Amino acid sequence: MRKTGAFKAVSISKKIVDDFVANDVSFITTVPCKQLAGVIDEVEAREEIFHIPANKEDEGMGLCAGAFMGGKRPAIIMQNTAIGVTINTLATLTQFYRMPLPMLISYRGELREPVACQVEMAVHTKALLNQLNIPTYHFHKESDADELDAILKYTFMCNKPVAILTDASFWGGYGDQ
Amino acid sequence: MIRSEILREIAPILRDQLVVCNIGLPSQELHMIDDQPTNFYMLGTMGLSSSIGLGLALAQPKTVIAIDGDGSVLTNLGTLPTIANNVADNYILLIIDNGSYGSTGDQPTYAGKKTRLEAVAAACGCENVVTCQAEETGKVVQAAIDSKKMTIIVSKCESGNIKLPVITKDPVVIRDRFMTAVAS
Fold first, then answer.
1. Which of A21, A62, A97, B38 has a CA 20 to 30 Å removed from the CA of B53?
2. ipTM above 0.85, yes or no
């Protein structure tokens, strides 16, 4: 079972990054989360993508804003706790200047979560995104990722930040925990 | 010499480059002194001038000068390791260090006390860190452009502000005009 889960995570990570590349996303900043380790490895491995790890998510959004103005399509990969860190940046930079930003977000604190503290931000995540009028998609089953291609096209069509929440069930759980 | 005097003096050098300018008075001053389509004015989001500038420099080949302040760099101190580890030789970070939060009433920053940003930048791994006095800024910026090496400049000046209007241009207009200049 564990092997199957690991293979599933690898193939999902590959599919996600394939969709990024197919949509000409070539500048990706990341702040790590255990759930996102596979997709971050895949981003790092791709020649088509410039991967720039950020120390904090608002810094990463600044990098993405610059890359967008330089002619690249950017994306950020981060944990949902980052919504608490980046509200000001989302409102006064990404939204105010009307810039596109796909945000692939690990939705910690959902079903199968082993760390209680993660739930404390999970309960605010969708409410904050809703308050910010950020289009939000929630990947719970593997097949939900079939929409990623359309979500990316939508993001660069409307020049908005768009959130893609990916929960533990989507990633195949937490292994032994 | 105060920040607005530095900007007035280096405006002829900045005019031919892509400039990302820090929130508040620095953007208002540059806008008043020499508004150019190659200037990106930050109207909010304190701390991200250096990050926006780095992203821009990594994405395209033209020289980018990010104008930042000591207070803003302290707000986003994580930017310096990112800059050091992602070298873009078309990138210049000009930190105008007046030791105070100028836009909010000249409260002192830690850079005006014991913290030296040039030492922080070097400790983060930045390879070309130049400290200068306000009067030398133009010469140092021009040398950094000519060197085609990523350079962090810390220009030490006096605190103080001039009275001037806020920028009323629409942010999308600023961004679109800037992107057209970047792509031209």
1. A21
2. yes
